[in-house]
Each structure stands twice: as structure tokens, then as C-alpha cells.
């Protein structure tokens, strides 16, 4: 695993935004029995999900923009002082340009700013922090925004029970600046697993055709197209069991923390069954393992900051905590961060209204 | 863990009384589905520290086939 230990940056604050639209698993009832749907919900721990409209009127970038504007205002940062912007998502606005550049324009940031996209999901938040912390610790940047989010509802077939009742939409903003929070990162990749969580068509390897967009019957009675996300849940679970425990152990050792020194474990909110199994396997104190997906679902790269906003923001505003942030999934890709942080600017959850979300700068003219 | 103890763990997982099914019973008759596959991987990991391949589970027809996947971890 890649190991990076830094002491030159600090997280100053974070904010999370979700769309106002709410969905449950009822779309599956056209395809599966009520008993089936109940079993899935019992296992995943997801009751409701926040979802954007299907027409593109609210994109991942809009959720991240709302979170960023709120955070910058509460931090009282001069926008000209922000010299780095990283957009972490697998649901960008465009094929090109980078959504980070579009967001840079919409946020009105200075030209003296590096901006780029990172195409990662479940591990992406930790990767974004890893990059931002190094950009600052190297002396290259002084204030960096990590905007991580996903609108997975746009790439999920409502008739695929492996994914439809699980994934929700969210966008987040995390602000880093020069400072002294000790951060211990561990990162890894296993590209052999790329086929197990994939949208295979609609890119350049397998371009869009009417056939790739057609939803057809697949394994287990699921119905989806090659442009919808496919997830092999049992393979993903097996990978997680193999990689996550040693990942957490390594990051904790790097930080010289015992098991009890960690005030909160914030895992990627994959599903409740997986989180509970991981906690038991690693013998973690259950009350310190954050589970915050009942009303949001699995929100990919947004899930860790969203869980922090939901479960820890009150404490993080007033005290220092030892946090273990752990992302793992699509790629396969994984990363963990052990850090001590606190006294953060952490606004309450932002709800982005559906109608007011389109700002003039990115509404397409007919 | 003995074979019988593992069968008890399986019964627990399937939310059925112990001894309510036999090794010859088909998985289909026990309402086997994709969630059960993940639960089985979880039980094998937790009780036996055994890593079971999902594609090997997919080939199992009976309870005996499942147990055969972890038999070298049983006492």
C-alpha cells in the first residue's frame, strides 16, 4: 500500500448537500415481490434516498456548488484566496471540459487556481483529501476545495435490485488550508476488480448505440442496460473483507493509535450489513462506527463527508476528534486517512431545491 | 468449529430452527438468493476465517455443496 504521512495542512470545514427529492424502493415493486424488497431494505439499512430529477436540471456539480458556497461563506474565506479545486465524481456535467473548470467559473474563483477532476467513487473522498493535503503541504497551494459527490440515481436502472434501492445522490465540499493536523494516509488499487462495478457502455470503449441503451433481463431477474451501473455485490463484499481490515490497521499503526484511540470510524457508507460485518470483524467498538445511510443510501464519494455532517458535525464544531476515514469500492480502489481534527466550520445539511437549482451560468439555451 | 456447529450457524443465518433442513436439501428450497450468498460469505468469514469465492457458491446446488467449500476449516 502507498503510505503518506503529512503535517502541513488542516481541514478547516466541510458541508454536505442533498437534493430535495426523496425516493424509496417502490420502483422495484413492478419487478420484484414486496417480500423481496423488504429483505433488501432490511439488509442494506436504506429506507429513503435523496434523488435528483432525471432531466439533468440538478447535477452533482450543483449539489457540490451549493455546499461550497455555504462553506466558503461560513468560513469567511476570500474567494481569491482559494488556489486549488478538486472535483471528485463519476457523474460529471460533461465529457469535457473538466467539471472542476466549470465549477471554478460558477464559483467565481481566481485565475491563480489549479482545478481538475478525479474519476473515483467510494474511495474518492480519501483520494481527494490525499491530493489536497499534499498540494498544500508541498507549499504549492494554500487553500484547496475538495468537492466530492455523485448523482448515481442517473445511472441506475430502477428495475435492478442490486443497485436501485441502494444508491442516493449527494454533493459535498471540504476546505483545506495550511495548518498542522497530522494526517496518515494509506492507499491501494486492484484493477482486476474493475468489471465488478461498472457502467460499461456510453464511454469510448463501448460507445452509445440504441442497443447499449436498451434495458433487458439480466441475472436474477434484474433488468438494466449496458449504460446502467452493474454491481456484483458478492464480489464487492469479498474484496472488502480482504482489503479493509489490513487497510484500517495500517493507517492506525501509522498514526500510532490503538483501537480505542479512534473516536469515530467513518467508513464509506456502502450498506449497513457490510459496515456491521466489518466492525465485528475488526472488533471495533460499535458506538464509534458511524452508520448514516438510512435516509440517504449509499452516496459514493459523498458518503464519508455526508456521514460526518449527519453524525459528527456538532462535536467537530467544538472539540478535537481522532477520525478514521475509510473509502473502498469501485475500481477496486481504496484509501484510509487517520487524522486528528476539530473546531471545524460544519454547517447543517443543505437541502437543494429542485426548481431553483439551475443558475444562469449553466442553463443550456434552446 | 465442527460441521454440526457450522450447520447451526447456517440455520441461524437462514432464520430457521436447527435440524429443520438436511445436507441434501437444495438451496432453492431454502429461498436462496443474492442476499443469502453475501450472508454465507459473511458467516464463513466470521466463524471460520474462510474466504469463499462467490463463483464457487454460484455452482452449489445443495447445503452439502456449500459445506464442502469450507470443509478444510471444520474440525
Explain what the structure shows.
The complex is a heterodimer of chains A (366) and B (75). Chain A has 366 residues and is an alpha/beta fold. Chain A has eight helices and 17 strands. In chain A, helix 2 packs across helix 3. Chain A is globular, with a radius of gyration of 19 Å. In chain A, 52% of the residues are buried. Chain B is mainly alpha-helical and 75 residues long. Chain B is 51% helix and 0% strand. Chain B contains four helices and no strands. Chain B has helices spanning 3-13, 34-48, 54-58, 63-69. In chain B, helix 1 packs across helix 2. The longest helix of chain B is centred in the middle third of the chain and has 15 residues, at 34-48. Chain B is globular. The A-B interface holds A 36, 39-40, 43, 161-162, 220, 232-235, 237-238, 241-242, 273, 277, 280-281 and B 33-35, 37-39, 41-42, 45-46, 51-54, 57.
Query: How large is the radius of gyration of chain A?
Result: 19 Å
Biggest sheet record of chain A: 6 strands, mixed
CA-CA gap between termini of chain B: 6 Å
General shape of chain B: globular
Strand content of chain B: under 5%
Largest interface: A-B, 19 and 15 residues
Q: What oligomeric state do these chains adopt?
A: heterodimer
DSSP summary, beta strand count of chain B = 0
Mean pLDDT of chain A equals: 95
Strand order of the largest sheet of chain A: 6-5-7-8-2-17
How far the N terminus sits from the C terminus of chain A, by CA atoms, comes to 49 Å
Main pleated sheet of chain B = none
Morphology call of chain A: globular
Q: How many helices of chain A in DSSP terms?
A: 8
The helix tally of chain B amounts to 4
- Mean of residue pLDDT of chain B? 92
Amino acid at each position: 500500500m502507498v503510505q503518506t504521512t503529512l503535517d502541513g495542512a488542516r481541514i478547516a470545514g466541510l458541508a454536505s448537500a442533498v437534493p430535495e427529492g426523496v425516493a424509496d424502493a417502490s420502483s422495484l415493486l413492478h419487478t420484484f415481490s414486496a417480500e423481496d424488497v423488504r429483505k433488501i431494505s432490511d439488509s442494506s439499512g436504506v429506507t429513503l434516498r435523496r434523488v435528483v430529477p432525471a432531466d439533468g436540471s440538478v447535477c452533482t456539480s450543483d449539489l457540490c456548488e451549493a455546499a461550497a458556497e455555504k462553506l466558503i461563506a461560513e468560513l469567511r474565506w476570500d474567494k481569491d484566496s482559494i488556489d486549488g479545486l478538486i472535483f471528485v465524481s463519476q457523474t460529471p456535467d460533461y465529457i469535457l471540459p473538466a467539471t472542476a473548470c466549470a465549477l471554478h467559473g460558477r464559483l467565481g474563483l481566481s485565475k491563480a487556481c489549479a482545478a481538475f477532476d478525479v474519476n473515483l467513487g467510494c474511495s474518492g473522498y480519501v483520494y481527494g483529501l490525499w491530493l489536497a493535503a499534499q498540494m498544500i503541504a508541498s507549499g504549492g497551494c494554500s487553500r484547496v476545495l475538495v468537492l466530492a459527490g455523485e448523482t448515481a440515481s442517473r445511472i441506475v436502472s430502477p428495475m435492478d435490485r442490486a443497485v436501485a434501492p441502494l444508491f442516493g445522490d449527494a454533493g459535498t465540499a471540504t476546505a483545506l488550508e495550511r495548518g498542522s493536523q497530522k494526517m496518515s494516509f494509506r492507499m491501494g488499487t486492484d484493477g482486476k476488480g474493475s468489471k465488478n462495478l461498472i457502467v460499461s457502455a456510453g464511454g469510448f470503449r463501448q460507445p452509445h448505440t440504441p442497443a447499449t441503451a436498451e434495458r433487458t433481463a439480466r441475472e436474477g431477474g434484474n433488468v438494466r442496460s449496458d449504460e446502467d451501473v452493474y454491481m456484483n455485490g458478492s464480489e464487492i463484499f469479498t474484496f472488502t473483507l480482504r482489503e479493509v481490515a489490513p487497510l484500517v490497521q495500517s493507517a492506525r499503526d501509522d498514526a500510532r493509535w490503538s483501537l480505542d484511540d479512534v473516536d469515530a470510524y467513518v467508513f464509506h457508507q456502502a450498506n449497513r450489513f457490510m459496515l456491521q460485518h466489518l466492525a465485528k470483524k475488526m472488533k471495533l467498538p460499535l458506538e464509534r462506527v458511524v452508520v448514516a445511510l438510512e435516509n440517504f443510501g449509499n452516496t459514493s464519494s459523498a458518503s464519508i463527508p455526508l456521514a460526518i455532517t449527519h453524525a459528527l458535525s456538532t462535536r467537530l464544531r467544538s472539540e478535537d476528534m481522532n477520525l478514521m476515514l475509510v473509502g473502498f469500492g469501485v475500481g477496486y480502489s481504496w484509501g484510509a486517512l487517520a487524522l486528528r481534527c476539530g473546531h471545524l466550520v460544519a454547517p447543517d445539511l443543505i437541502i437543494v431545491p429542485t426548481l431553483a437549482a439551475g443558475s444562469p451560468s449553466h442553463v443550456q439555451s434552446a | 468449529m465442527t460441521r454440526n456447529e457450522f450447520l447451526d450457524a447456517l440455520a441461524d443465518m437462514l432464520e430457521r430452527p436447527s435440524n429443520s433442513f438436511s445436507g441434501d436439501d437444495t438451496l432453492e428450497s431454502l429461498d436462496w438468493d443474492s442476499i443469502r450468498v453475501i450472508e454465507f460469505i459473511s458467516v464463513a468469514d466470521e466463524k471460520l476465517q474462510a474466504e469463499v469465492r462467490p463463483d464457487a457458491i454460484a455452482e452449489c446446488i445443495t447445503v452439502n455443496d456449500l459445506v464442502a467449500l469450507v470443509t478444510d476449516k471444520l474440525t
